[in-house]
């Protein structure tokens, strides 16, 4: 096994690796081993998503961790949106040097930001919201809600260093989620939140992308050799 640090990067609910590709690419270029799996049922359309469950998504994350652990040590786990919930489960189950979540939910659906977006550009945002509702099966949304509920009791056991990135204009995850997550983990985690004023939910494809990725790299360098 290599002594090179490994990064497990997990995409979000009903998304795919494109959610996190700018980050994964930069981490590889920085010389880290990177595992960036497509979660079970994702990336193949509505029907395949409906066939998968939260247990399948967790298994995808666990199997990716194990693959990475065969060629890297230590390991940093990074999750975007629902991927952050999976990252918390991974950090709860396996040895992890650092936990990073990006726009991950404690509370879901920011109605006020959604209404602001519709006022600013109704045509663009209304199409996006309708497409999201059409493409996400109700069964899958219920699985997501159960995953969120089952993740919260794990938070007090998270003691590894924890860094959170949160967009203030997030219309999918209520921005206050970052504070709830940070306040729920053990004090030893030393949770730190970095806020981004100019971005929506897709932070890694936003005007703040470069700064967000730089923050992640700084956190990895700070804790990677600890």
Radius of gyration: 17 Å
Alpha-beta classification:
alpha/beta
Major sheet: 6 strands, parallel
Ends apart, CA distance between termini = 19 Å
Share in β-strands: 5-15%
Task: Let me know the number of strands.
Answer: 6
Overall morphology: globular
Features:
9 helices, globular, 6-stranded parallel β-sheet, 6 strands, 13% strand, alpha/beta, 226 residues
Q: What does it look like?
A:
The protein is an alpha/beta fold and 226 residues long. The chain contains nine helices and six strands. It has helices at 21-29, 46-51, 54-69, 82-93, 111-120, 122-135, 138-151, 177-184, 209-224, and strands spanning 6-10, 33-35, 75-80, 98-102, 162-167, 192-196. It has a six-stranded parallel beta sheet with strand order 2-1-3-4-5-6, with helices on both faces. Helix 4 packs across helix 7 (138-151) and helix 5 crosses helix 6 (122-135). The two termini are 19 Å apart. The model is unreliable at 113-132 (pLDDT under 50).
């Amino acid at each position: 096994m290599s002594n090179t640090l490994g990064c497990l990067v997990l995409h979000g609910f009903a998304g795919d690796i494109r959610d996190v590709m700018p980050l994964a690419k930069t981490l590889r270029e920085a010389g880290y081993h990177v595992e960036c799996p497509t979660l079970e049922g994702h990336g193949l359309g509505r029907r395949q998503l409906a066939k998968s469950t939260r247990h399948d998504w967790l298994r995808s994350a666990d199997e990716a961790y194990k693959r990475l652990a065969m060629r890297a040590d230590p390991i940093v786990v990074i999750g975007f949106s629902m991927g952050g919930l999976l990252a918390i489960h991974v950090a709860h189950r396996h040895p992890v040097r650092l936990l990073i979540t990006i726009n991950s939910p404690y509370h879901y659906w920011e109605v006020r930001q959604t209404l602001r977006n519709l006022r600013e550009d109704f045509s663009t945002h209304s199409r996006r919201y309708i497409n999201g509702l059409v493409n996400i099966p109700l069964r899958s949304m219920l699985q997501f809600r159960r995953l969120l509920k089952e993740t919260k009791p794990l938070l007090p056991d998270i003691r590894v260093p924890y860094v959170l990135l949160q967009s203030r204009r997030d219309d999918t995850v209520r921005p206050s989620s970052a504070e709830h997550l940070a306040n729920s983990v053990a004090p030893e985690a030393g949770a730190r939140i970095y806020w981004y004023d100019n971005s929506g939910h897709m932070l890694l494809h936003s005007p703040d992308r470069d700064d967000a990725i730089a923050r992640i790299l700084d956190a990895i360098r700070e804790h990677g050799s600890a």
